[in-house]
Amino acid sequence: QVQLVQSGAEVKKPGASVKLSCKASGYTFTTYAMHWVRQAPGQSLEWMGWINGGNGNTKYSQKFQGRVTITRDTSASTAHMELSSLISEDTAVYYCARVLAGEIDYWGQGTLVTVSS
Amino acid sequence: QSVLTQPPSVSGAPGQRVTISCTGNSSNIGAGYDVHWYQQLPGTAPQLLIYGNSNRPSGVPDRFSGSKSGTSASLAITGLQAEDEADYYCQSYDTSLSALFGGGTKLTVL
Bridge-partner residues for A18, per DSSP? Predict the structure, then answer.
């Protein structure tokens, strides 16, 4: 069965960077794209960007352009999302999510990132 | 603010029908991009509820239905049940192939 298993919770200081991972199993990693979506406490879902699992092409939200980098390691069937210059407003649960034909059919369990001095 | 606009909240009594709207513009929904809907129960990751405007994944009850017209889409829930109380999000794309989410709608079952 398809599973997306994300790395554990992180606590970071303002100005630092965080790199999250999302290990996929149960399907051919290179056949699907992966979104990264975040959700601040009590807030709505916010799209950050996506990566083509096959060719590694990326597309980022304008809001995060310059601060976010999404990569993949096809040998490990793992996607990574790095967010730099963290501020308190980046405190959120971060999800990786597999894209089927535009819709997201599987989500990771989420990783809580807390930014605090 | 989200580019896709949803009502912040809707409510209904058990057994009733509720609808949730998702309004976009000519650069996203109106440009022909499909709308997808997700249900998020408290403390859990969202789950796909409707894809391609009106299709239900296996396992989703037929009480849930979706439609799209012009620059808007709607999610309808009939025969409301207590377990339907959750947050609902619409999702689409824009002409730059950026994904878009609605601001979410909290459904309360009275």
Answer: A83
